[in-house]
Amino acid sequence: MSTKLHILEIAEELFAEHGFADTSLRQITTVADVNLASVNYHFGSKKGLIQASVGRYMEQLAPSVDSALASIEDRSSISIQEVLLAIVPGFLSLESVRVGGTSIFMRLLGRGYAETQGHLRKYVEENYGGTLSRLMSVIKLALPELSEEELFWRIHFALGTFVFTMASSQALQEISEADYDSLASIQYIIHQLVPFIGYGMEAPASSCLMSGSFRDLAVG
Amino acid sequence: MSTKLHILEIAEELFAEHGFADTSLRQITTVADVNLASVNYHFGSKKGLIQASVGRYMEQLAPSVDSALASIEDRSSISIQEVLLAIVPGFLSLESVRVGGTSIFMRLLGRGYAETQGHLRKYVEENYGGTLSRLMSVIKLALPELSEEELFWRIHFALGTFVFTMASSQALQEISEADYDSLASIQYIIHQLVPFIGYGMEAPASSCLMSGSFRDLAVG
DNA sequence: GTATATTTCAAACGGTTGTTTGAAACTGGT
DNA sequence: ACCAGTTTCAAACAACCGTTTGAAATATAC
User: Fold this and answer.
1) In this predicted model, what pLDDT tens digit does every residue of B128-161 receive, in sequence order?
2) With contacts defined as CB-CB under 8 Å, which chain A residues touch B209?
3) What global pTM score does this model have?
């Protein structure tokens, strides 16, 4: 049973660092010092390994986010920052899965969203779609003045900011002179991320910001 | 000479849609209906083709952004929205490179930033680093109240939002019911993007938003 | 201790990748 | 019409990919 978990942990690290497509099973098994065939034996396929690596975090994260949302969704008014801060502890709790788990999972999430023509996204939606739609409706509650379409884009912008930052957080931490340990620095990033996303999402509707004057800028 | 340009245009579309790693030369040459070897003949290698596909947009974008920044960087005070709106026309002018050029280039940018262990980023930095640092210093001017480190993260968040949105804009446009033509919809996205990024970037410094109360959330 | 089930292992499989080759086809100038 | 220069082409190259195989090795149960 040790080999299976060992493969999983090595795979998570390599997937998070280089992406799913650019990490071969041979790299994983070489680093993990196990036989190549053991991946297919324990996980069935590479796809199975990928799903397992994000799955074990999702199955802890989803109920945590669920209960956090449940505790605020019946309030009369919610700010978007409150929503964001409510779900943060769930992510930080992933440290209990493994050391550095929060960082690894977030980077996996970023990779998974950018890469793969949907098989990971599909897996997440099928297994944790309820939590996702619950989050969406709470956000909608926090931003009642936005139209449906604006909300759609804002949510994606927020997701994009989040996910992209996480996908490249490793490189960014190395660039920035921050010399915190792994847990502290992922906290620090979230610390910086929440106000950015929060304020961005509650920006006034775009139409009133640059009405007219815009179509003229296009060059034929 | 027609083959070379034809390869380039088909390659751009496939790169933008599926990413660089997930687009093979055989896919490109099949769609373009040219011989496989012609890519290596005209561009030397796949890496050469990738650089050529973003290069021809960059060489038009860079001077455009440069002059836009020059026209505002000597003002006494600049808002971040003004900075963003100043560089937007440069991106929209990429429509003159080819129809749909703005959308294609932005998606290429997103792909390039997320994928590849740096060879495209390195290429951009080496050839257009001046414009990049110029943009950075103007942004710094627009947000004087932020510390160096906060600025670093804010800029990356903005870049992440921008780039990630563009990388998946194709899919998003299909999801949203927006039925504008190609040029209009990329304008529409930018339309929505600017206030989000603008307000996010000028959010108050994070420390005053969730002082204390945060470290306790970490689960060991 | 033997029989049974589980796990490991080296080797090979078929397929795809980017790249190279050298001959064939085409080009424009004289 | 001829010849150089450029461009195309089918074919093969070596390297890598995920996966499968079937025999060894190991662990588990009686």
Assistant:
1) 889 988 988 898 889 988 887 788 888 888 888 8
2) 81, 194-195
3) 0.82
pLDDT at A185 over 80: no
Note whether B150 contacts A114, CB cutoff 8 Å.
no
Query: What pLDDT, on a 0 to 100 scale, did the predictor assign at position A188?
Result: 80
Distance from CA(A76) to C1'(D12), angstroms, rounded? 71
Residue A138: name the closest of A199, A66, A188, A206 by CA. Answer: A66
| Sign of the four-CA dihedral B199, A168, A194, A129 | positive
Q: How far is B199 from chain A (nearest CA, A)?
A: 5
How confident is the model at residue A212, as a pLDDT? Answer: 34
Nucleic strand C near CB of residue B42 (< 7 Å): no
Judge if the beta carbon of B42 is closer than 7 A to nucleic acid strand D: yes
Contacts of B18 in chain A (CB under 8 A): 117
CB contact under 8 A, A209 and B215: no
